[in-house]
Amino acid sequence: MGLVCRFNHLRLTGSLLALTLACLLQAQAPIDGKVKAEVLGRIGAIISRRAFVPGVDFGKWPEFLKEEKADIDAAKSEEEFQTAVNQALHKFGASHVLLMTPHIDQVRRTGKTVGIGIGARVVPEGLLVSRVYRDAPAAKAGISQGDVIVAIDGKPIDGLRGLKGDEGTDVSVKVLHPDGKAAEYKLTRQSYKTVWPPELSWIDKDTACLRIYAFDTGYDRNLVEELVDEAQDAKNLILDLRGNGGGAVSNLQHLLGMLIPKGRPLGCFIDRSTVARYVQDTGGKSTDLAAIAQWSNDKFVPIFRDDRPFFAGNVAVLVNRFSGSASEIGASALHDVLGAPVIGSKTAGAVLASTIVPATNDFAIQIPIEDYITIKGVRLEGAGVVPDIDAPDASVAPRDSKDPAIEKACFYFTQMSKGSR
Fold it and tell me: What CATH code is carried by the domain that includes residue 342?
């Protein structure tokens, strides 16, 4: 299989996908025992035949499934069933393995849904807002990433249940902002797009900032090329990957092809056949991923076009804990190959190549099929990318302050221009 085909699978960050889409659910759809059995049978067949992560025993699926049987049997809706099954899948200890309800899979494919327009995850204080969708009710009201929802319709948080609802219905949320101030918002659920196009802004006359929100359906290659063209006169480029949970690695290759010199290897994806060939040819250990990556000739490289301009200025990369998968690969590659500083907070550590497969009855399952090792022999799965320069997100800084990560990137560029770092 050729390089482009091999890396053309849709690669999403499993954990971040769940967080981002969890609040996109509408009213619960009922599910019966027959559908459950059919979906579980399909999941078992897919996992046993296709799932692969070095060191992970996917043969334990029946055992994990049995441990969650009570919750699975008790599930009365597609959402409850998904939650129970994902509790079992989570026991593998790997990212990029989860079940999606028909509605979530539809949202993933169409980029549209109904709700208040946030992604969130449960934390001890309530629901931590991980993403706020543009032009959706939450964004219009002033809710931001980093806020915590502490009550829904005057009631304590019970998971994500209270946020679901049909278009045109109202919900009240009490929000605790990072500065400690609380506010109450009455929101009307509406239809909105979950896709954000890339953006370019100018910080000063020498510094441009390219914001890539995702490498999935929101990544417009023509628009990205136009934005990189626009940034050609800049001495410095800030690549903002904060909140970018990943997507198609081929889109990442497209972006890196305009930032990294042609022919530079960035890392290596390792699948089942690569491990088997390495053990057969060298007699080495199947668990020595760094050695396997170094041995393999099938390296991950940018997609370079001779007719495209190449940005030759200074580059810095912004990340946070919601940066996952392809974003982590990109940040690591720019750091290792260009020496670009990574600024922000430690990334998600969800870096496995995956594919999404129909799981019958309009459900879908995401499964990992390859691991990834950087060109310096580092496995990012479970570890993440540790920034060179720590910086809080703008969402957790005082609301009247500037973006701390962008300020630190500009300071770095200023020091570089003075000949020191």
Answer: 3.90.226.10
Q: Do the Cβ atoms of 85 and 363 come closer than 8 Å?
A: no
The string over 359-383, giving b where at least 16 C-beta atoms fall within 10 Å of a residue's C-beta and e elsewhere, is beebbbbbbbbbbbbbbeebbbbee
Answer yes or no: do 319 and 243 share one domain.
yes
pLDDT in the model for residue 15: 41
Q: Domain range spanning residue 47? A: 3-110
* CA 329/CA 246 separation, integer angstroms: 9
* Positive or negative torsion for Cα 355, 50, 279, 13: positive
**Shared-domain flag, residues 207 and 181:** no
Average pLDDT in the 257-282 region?
95
Q: Which residues 6+ apart lie within 8 Å of 329 measured at CB?
A: 249, 252, 266, 267, 300, 351, 372, 374, 380
User: Does residue 147 belong to any structural domain of this protein?
Assistant: yes
152 lies in the same domain as 255: no
Euclidean distance between CA atoms 183 and 177, whole angstroms: 8
Greatest Cα pair distance in the chain: 69
Please enumerate in sequence order all residues whose Cβ is within 8 A of that of 281, keeping only pairs 6 or more positions apart, or say none.
295
Domain assignment of residue 167, yes or no: yes
Task: Report d(CA 248, CA 13) in Å as an integer.
Answer: 10
Q: Percentage of the chain surpassing pLDDT 70? A: 91
**CATH code: domain of residue 180:** 2.30.42.10
Rounded to two decimals, the pTM is: 0.84
Residue 197 DSSP code = -
**Count: domains in the chain:** 3
Q: Phi first, then psi: give them for residue 317, nearest 5 degrees.
A: -120, 130
- SS3 state of residue 312: coil
Whether residues 90 and 152 share a domain: the answer is no
Looking at the structure, tell me whether residues 96 and 160 fall in a common domain.
no
For residue 407, which amino acid is it? E
How far is the C-alpha of 204 from the C-alpha of 51, rounded, in Å? 47
For 380-411, the pLDDT digits (tens) are 999 999 999 999 877 655 555 689 999 999 99
d(CA 68, CA 194): 31
Strands 314-319 and 342-344, bridge-based pairing: parallel
Q: Check: CB of residue 349 under 8 Å from CB of residue 402.
A: no
Classify each residue of 67-89 as buried b or exposed e, where b means 16 or more C-beta atoms within 10 Å of its C-beta: ebeeebeebeebbbbbbbbbebb
Count each helix (H run) and each strand (E run) in the chain, helices first: 14, 18
